[in-house]
Design a protein that fits this description.
The structure holds 3 protein chains of 3 kinds. Chain A is an all-alpha fold. Helices cover 79% and strands 0% of the residues of chain A. Chain A has one domain (27-222): MetI-like (MetI-like fold, Orthogonal Bundle), CATH 1.10.3720. Chain A has helices spanning 2-10, 14-54, 60-72, 76-86, 96-121, 125-133, 138-168, 180-191, 194-222. By secondary structure, chain B is of the alpha/beta class. Chain B folds into 2 domains: 40-143 and 237-297, Periplasmic binding protein-like II (D-Maltodextrin-Binding Protein, domain 2); 145-236, D-Maltodextrin-Binding Protein, domain 2 (3-Layer(aba) Sandwich), CATH 3.40.190.10. Chain B contains 12 helices and 14 strands. Chain B is elongated, with a radius of gyration of 23 Å. Chain C has a two-stranded antiparallel sheet with strand order 1-2. Chain C has helices at 8-45, 50-65, 68-77, 92-118, 121-129, 134-164, 176-189, 201-231, and strands spanning 81-83, 86-88. The chains are: A mainly alpha, B alpha/beta, C mainly alpha. Chain A binds chain C through residues 1, 4, 69-70, 72-79, 81-82, 85-86, 89, 167-171, 173-174, 181, 185, 188, 192, 194, 198, 201-202, 205-206, 209-210, 213, and chain C through 61-62, 65-67, 69-70, 73-74, 77-79, 81-84, 159, 163-167, 169-170, 177, 181, 184, 199-200, 202-203, 206-207, 209-210, 213-214, 217-218, 221.
Chain lengths: 229, 308, 232
């Protein structure tokens, strides 16, 4: 088996990766398009719903909680198919790109909601009390105290959710969205160069994921709240 | 005493003749057709060693493409391709159950074959010159034609004039995929992950038309009063059994089996078993028969034939 | 009165009978294997031997960093290879189980490392003072405490693994989602003898699949939350 691995390594054709780099880069751009849109919107959803939940606004809190539980307890692929096959039945005609970012936004938003809720709830009470003592309204207190501090606390976990969103864009190949994995899979089917394509995919995805993870570690150190709090 | 012996011998001969007649006629002949002269099983070359040693076939079929390869609600594989596979099992091992099916999709079937997971694939595999560089084809076992599924109020006319600017859907890796990319550069092509998704896309105005095999589309149009097939028929290319390259004994056996089935008009029986009765007339010409052999268009690859 | 439409009953039976056992089997194998491999790797990571730590760290970061779909496609497309005299080729089901195990074991390894390192040094010293060797210390003192702390995240891993079995859809394993998809094809084509479904079929079929996952995962998620609270 050892000499088989050596054989595989020896026959590794870098030229295949080189020739496909245009197609792979195109796929990568599609991944980032849907991914970035999904992440930004998920942050917005998470911020708003997380605030709702942390402040226990009646009715809306329960609705948000149901949304979160539904999304967290069903696989994202089922959600993607449900949107892709189901929306047209309701008369909602969306192109593949829209279904792509919409589905990952809905999924990511649920996780971000929980991330932000935990962050907001972790803000020490005396700080929000200080805000009220200064005459802030509830909204002002949220904007000037809870959001900045709670947001920083939540930053590492939200970036983790963002990483998951990027990784889940690979599933969009199953609805025909030409992202990175779709492109690599196509090339692999035509050329049978499995190892080369996998290496290319691994480099792309791990570059994104490892960079973002390093960002988390950096931020955790830089944004650490001073001990005085 | 001598008369008794003669009587016994004559009686024995009569009984033997009667027995021979009974058993002899149980085998072939339903009627006076020329197939009656053929024995039920053709003379087949030696079964490839790996298959013989295993005692059963491993065949890749579709599981989501009625009426060729699908699964009924009890989980049983059914369809035209599946019946062909069962006939192979019967002739190789004497029983239609001596075959294990592996589900493949359009995108995964060639990889599944070349990676050795199955012996052969019988999975709506249209012949293309490109594919023949990677795998071998048996002699054809079905002749499909491409059709366009559109909404009732759409008038198509000539393809060359209608196609530019339109949005067409089909499945990934199909012959339609290549043909559109070759011949209709101004047509937008959208891949769908499955035939049903394509139908939905047309019904919901996400695409102007779905391009796919006639057998599937005819069924859909028949059951949906808002959809119809345009009159264009194109890409008439036969399907073959997919065989790995450099396996001459496998190719010999499969070719002999397909020829044997064709000469006994078994493909017509299979068609009748797998397609609803009201479509029999439409699809009779698609199945090979003793009078109607199918051939691959090797001299002019179909996906390069662009309509004028 | 049965509110479910006529065409749906055989569809739901097929999904339940063919798809659910396949999903649960894959998840069970993956979780058990992930636990075994992950705990071993995670414990080894705590040994102060740099090369070993880097090796295991690499394993963890690769299989956690890659989308599981990419892993499963890679394993599935690998050509067959020979180990000694045996010709090895993984089926779709085995490829999916292996991919889930690689990911799961990386998660468990990381969780184990964190849990083991959170055990106060005094425990190690006390165990050593009692005469336990390294393996003995881990087995009888450290790991039992670490594993207790890991139970809530492990329940979370189980939930995630069950949901991640849907990636096997891409390579044709007949798990719950694939079963739903096949039935969807059958009832749309009108060629299978099954009653043809109306246009809202996708909602019912994929909604049903989602419901099945929810019924399995929601109690487990609640359990994980409860266990987490009990620990602190």
């Amino acid at each position: 088996m050892f000499d088989r691995s050596v054989h595989v390594l020896a026959s590794f054709e870098w030229s295949v990766i080189w020739d496909s780099q245009g197609a792979l880069w195109g796929g990568f751009k599609h991944t980032m398009k849907a991914g970035v849109v999904g992440i930004v919107l998920a942050y917005l959803v998470g911020l708003v719903l997380g605030a709702l939940r942390a402040h226990r606004i009646p009715i809306l809190n329960q609705l948000a909680a149901s949304y979160v539980e539904l999304i967290r307890n069903t696989p994202i692929l089922v959600q993607i198919f449900f949107l892709y096959y189901g929306l047209p039945v309701l008369g909602i005609h969306l192109d593949v790109f829209t279904v792509a970012w919409l589905s990952i936004t809905i999924w990511g938003g649920a996780f971000m909601t929980e991330n932000f809720r935990a962050g907001f709830e972790a803000v020490p009470q005396r700080l929000s009390e200080a805000g009220y003592a200064l005459g802030f309204t509830r909204l002002q207190e949220f904007l000037y105290v809870t959001l900045p501090i709670g947001g920083r606390i939540a930053l590492p976990s939200t970036i983790n959710s963002a990483i998951s969103v990027i990784k889940n864009t690979s599933l969009l190949l199953l609805i025909g969205y030409p992202e990175l994995t779709y492109v690599a899979n196509n090339i692999q089917s035509n050329t049978f160069r499995t190892f080369e394509m996998f290496t290319a995919l691994a480099v792309y995805y791990l570059a994104i994921v490892w960079t973002l993870s390093a960002l988390i570690r950096f931020l955790e150190r830089r944004l650490a709240l001073p001990e005085a709090f | 005493m001598k008369r008794l012996v003669v009587l016994t011998i004559v009686l024995g001969l009569v009984v033997a003749a009667a027995v021979a007649a009974t058993f002899g006629s149980a085998a072939p002949a339903r009627g006076v057709s020329p197939q009656a002269k053929l024995p039920p099983k053709p003379k087949l070359p030696a079964l490839p060693a790996a298959v013989k040693a295993r005692g059963k076939w491993l065949i890749g079929v579709k599981c989501d493409t009625p009426p060729f390869g699908w699964q009924d609600t009890s989980g049983k594989n059914r369809g035209y391709d599946v019946e062909v596979a069962r006939q192979f099992a019967k002739w190789a091992f004497g029983s239609t159950s001596k075959v294990d099916f592996t589900c493949v999709t359009t995108a995964s079937r060639i990889g599944t074959l070349t990676s050795g997971r199955v012996d052969i694939i019988i999975s709506t595999l249209t012949w293309t010159a490109d594919r023949e560089k990677v795998i071998d084809y048996s002699v054809p076992y079905y002749n499909a034609a491409g059709r366009l599924l559109v909404k009732n109020n759409v008038a198509v006319g000539k393809l060359a004039t209608w196609m530019p600017g339109k949005k067409i859907v089909s499945t990934s890796g199909s012959i339609y995929d290549r043909w559109i990319k070759n011949c209709f550069k101004n047509t937008s092509f959208q891949v769908v992950s499955s035939p049903a998704a394509g139908v939905l896309a047309v019904k919901n105005d996400q695409a102007n038309a779905m391009m796919y095999d006639d057998a599937f589309l005819v069924g859909v149009a028949a059951n949906d009063s808002s959809l119809k097939l345009s009159s264009n028929i194109f890409l008439k290319v036969p399907w073959g059994v997919g065989i790995r390259k450099n396996e001459p004994d496998m190719k010999r056996w499969v070719d002999a089996a397909v020829r044997g089935m064709r000469n006994r008009d078994l493909f017509w029986s299979i068609l009748k078993r797998t397609i609803p009765r009201r479509f029999w007339k439409t699809f009779r010409p698609n199945a090979p028969s003793p009078a109607h052999k199918l051939q691959y268009p090797r001299s002019s690859p179909p996906e390069n034939n662009c309509p004028s | 009165m049965n509110p479910l439409p006529e065409w749906f009953r055989p569809v739901s039976e097929y999904i339940l009978r063919e798809g659910v056992p396949e999903t649960l089997r894959m998840a069970a194998i993956a979780v058990v294997a992930s636990l075994v491999i992950g705990v071993v790797l995670g414990t080894l990571m705590t040994i102060r031997f740099r090369p070993l730590q880097w090796l295991i760290r690499f394993y963890v970061e690769v299989w956690r960093g890659l989308p599981i779909l990419v892993t499963v496609l890679f394993i599935f497309w690998l050509p067959a290879f020979d180990v000694g005299r045996h010709h090895v080729q993984l089926s779709a089901y085995q490829s999916a189980a292996l991919a889930l195990t690689l990911w799961g074991s990386a998660q468990v390894a990381e969780a184990t490392r964190g849990a083991v390192q959170s055990i106060p040094k005094e425990q190690h010293e006390a165990a050593a003072a009692l005469g336990f060797g390294w393996v003995g210390r881990q087995t009888f003192v450290i790991l039992p405490q670490a594993l207790r702390r890991m139970v809530p995240p492990l329940v979370g891993l189980l939930v995630n693994t069950i949901q991640n079995t849907t990636i096997a859809f891409a390579i044709g394993v007949n798990e719950v989602l694939q079963a739903g998809q096949r039935q969807f094809e059958n009832v749309t084509s009108g060629l299978t003898g099954q009653p043809v479904a109306p246009s809202y079929a996708p909602f019912l079929i994929f909604g049903y699949v989602a419901l099945l996952f929810f019924i399995i995962c929601f109690p487990l998620t609640r359990l994980a939350a409860y266990l987490e609270k009990r620990l602190t």
